[in-house]
């Protein structure tokens, strides 16, 4: 992780819109972008970061740099409920902020598991995916750490495709973009063309959806449909959940789609040549960094993305149905 990733930063990306870059110590990405939209007296946050004392202090520090306090936050809008984007929601609610999230995310089974059940289901997924036994303890510790930093409550109000939220002169249109999570959302500020994409679209990587503990459905197919929705609106600038803002949404969508379709062909080819688990497929996929140089959490993430590809390819009949993650793998029975 570069040293700069551990320094909290703030910059104004448009009039009254600030990107607050919060460090995520120990996370493979290193930081998360949250966005503060301010009026004369109040602030709306899009996403909010981990629920740690350090992250809370960093948030307070960056708000002070723009002349605000945490008590000025009127509303927190979540692009999705992963811990690095939603973990602080409960703390901010106690300070008076209302929290809005898509019901598909808050209804996700994983979102409500206690620690014991989460570990139980994670072990089942590791076994199905073919994660080597010697790495499962480390992988589980990391997953449980992320889970513990999350927010597992109901929002004050639910977002859907038709939700439009007004904050001063800002008008935020909700766009449902399932894929990265079961019902991720993006927000389009209609007067400026600013598009807040969470983890659905980045300017510097082709990060995609994944299938792991108690996830379900066909997120890769959902994702490929969702990113096309982002090209319909008039977008002037894209503000992602990680890394830098960018402008050409159409070229990024096209590149992302092409990347995942190429990756799907590779996955199908490896299955045809005898690879039979998500892990064994993931470790054979050509990439810029060798498999051995990836951290265990990064290898788990790559395996989970392969799992999402297998679900889509099985639905299309391009790989055997028994390789689909939810047909032969994750037993929903509770922990003993």
Automatic annotation (TrEMBL):
For this protein, the record's Gene3D superfamilies field holds:
Ribonuclease Z/Hydroxyacylglutathione hydrolase-like (3.60.15.10), Winged helix-like DNA-binding domain superfamily/Winged helix DNA-binding domain (1.10.10.10)
Where does the source fall among the domains of life? Bacteria
Per UniProt, residues of the Metallo-beta-lactamase domain are 31-242
The record's SUPFAM superfamilies line, in alphabetical order, gives: Metallo-hydrolase/oxidoreductase
PANTHER family in the record: ENDORIBONUCLEASE LACTB2, METALLO-BETA-LACTAMASE SUPERFAMILY POTEIN
What protein name does the entry list? Glyoxylase, beta-lactamase superfamily II
Q: Which organism is it from?
A: Microbacterium pygmaeum
